Each structure stands twice: as structure tokens, then as C-alpha cells.
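Same chain as my last thread, 135 residues:
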Amino acid sequence: MQKLIAKYKTQPNNSLSENNFLIDPSEVKTVQELSVSLNIPVPPDTVIISKTELEELQKLKLFGVYWAMNDLEKKVNRKSDWIKENILYRTKFKEILDSENGGFVFYPKPKGQTWSFHASKMAKFLDENFQRIFS
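reply #2:
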């Protein structure tokens, strides 16, 4: 009976080693492939788009949108006093955020003025600074 030598590499403990085994050709299994064509109906009110296009659409959802303080409270799930103390009036953030410094947050001056946040830029800031905000 003819024997085959099979080699394969393993990675125990992140090291490569080569092992040899004798295999009886009658015990070798063959792999079969099956190609299938399948039609899946898509409802008329449904559209299939790529992940990249979905991400672009999500970005556009905030394009040209401004938040008031109550919108920001909902996004951050914190009250305005907490937001002011931990984000808006912290020196390291105010320098970046304040529209007078080229930022994207309007800080009200006299009583009666309201906060205004450029939604897409504020959302990006919150995502990118999560660790700094909560530490």
C-alpha cells in the first residue's frame, strides 16, 4: 500500500512547527463545491445600499443641522449643568469649541441668548473625546 506524507504547520504558543504524518490515500477526503444562484425578493419599499453609502447618509443626516442645549442633553444623556461643567466650560475644551476661537459652539453672552451647536462637528467632538470627557 502506498503512503503519502502530509505536512502542516501549527502555532502553539505563537511558534511555528512543521509536522509530518503518514496518510493512507484511501482515507483522503475530497472537498466538493456547490454553486447556487438564489433569488431573494426585495419589498418595493426597501432599498439595498452599501455600508459605505449608509455611513455617508448618516453623516448627511447632521449636515447643516444645529442643536440647542436641549438637543445636546438628549445626545449626551446628561443635564445642561453637567454638560457646562464637564465639557463646555472646561478650559481644554472651551478653547476648541468656542466659535470666537473658530470652533463650532456659540456661547451665549447676555441673558436670553441660547446655546447653539454645529451638530455634525459636535457629534464628532463627543465621539473623539469620550475618554477625555469622562476622565
